Amino acid sequence: MIDVAYLRVYRPADQVRLPVTTNGRDVPRLMGPTLTTESQRADAWEVEWGGRRWRCPRAPRRRMLESLVAYHQATNRFGMSIIDVAEAESARSELIRIRAGVAEPASVMVSAWHPPLRWFVPFIPDDVVEPMLLRKRLEDAVARAGEAIGYMRALDLPSLWIEDIESLHNWMQSFRGEAMLELDYRQVGWRLGPSIMDDTTFDVASAVDALAAGDLETASHCYSAAMFRWAEAQAVAYSS
Asked: What's the distance, CA 30 to chain centroid?
């Protein structure tokens, strides 16, 4: 199985008119040049939070195509061309058809084996709903990520680091109206070891707070602690 972490944007349930998923995790199977363990049905996740029900469309086909095109662009830029050009162009053409008349990006980001640390930037420890599951009003998440970008610029941190957070910030800003952001990395938590002790949310939030105070040394220490915690899982992801 391919264990994954999810970053999802949910809408109030009455605004998402899709059936709710009831299936569990599927077996791995090839879908053209990609490998997936996810159902390809156009349904939605549904959760209860803050006394309300929320839904997130899965859009699995669209997300798979977006990932394939993005991966092709990233590898082709360095002359690697891992994805066949014809496959990439076919995916790009299908994406254009799917996106016709759609103003927002897909509501889900997926990462194999570990949660990217930038996904924690919008959150603080108070946003933890249960171990390895965080939820926050999207408006507040956008504001915190924007503040973090400002702190990083003020300290003249490397542009590549800032661009990673800006990409996440832009994705979140693309959604209009009432929404909730959820970080769910329960599937990959076992990679932290038998104790499954996780302070990643605290570490990243502490790093952002230290940046706000102009304390780069403390920020680096906190962020490094989070990186070390997920180093083994990241190594698996990069070697896959």
From this structure: 22
DSSP state of 165: H
| Total Cβ atoms within 10 A of residue 139 | 14
Give the tens place of pLDDT for each residue, 189-206.
877 766 567 899 999 999
CB 138 within 8 A of CB 92: no
Cα–Cα distances (Å) from 109 to 112, 153, 182, in that order, read 10, 25, 10
Q: What is the mean pLDDT of the chain?
A: 81
Domain annotation covers residue 33: yes
User: What is the 8-class DSSP label of residue 20?
Assistant: B
Which of 39, 38, 17, 15 shows the shortest CA–CA distance to 180? 15
Could you tell me the two tokens for 125? 């420890």
Encoded amino acid at 107, one letter: S
74 is a domain residue: no
Amino acid letter, 173: Q
Distance CA 150, CA 163 (A): 12
Domain presence at residue 207: yes
Domain span holding position 39: 4-59+107-239
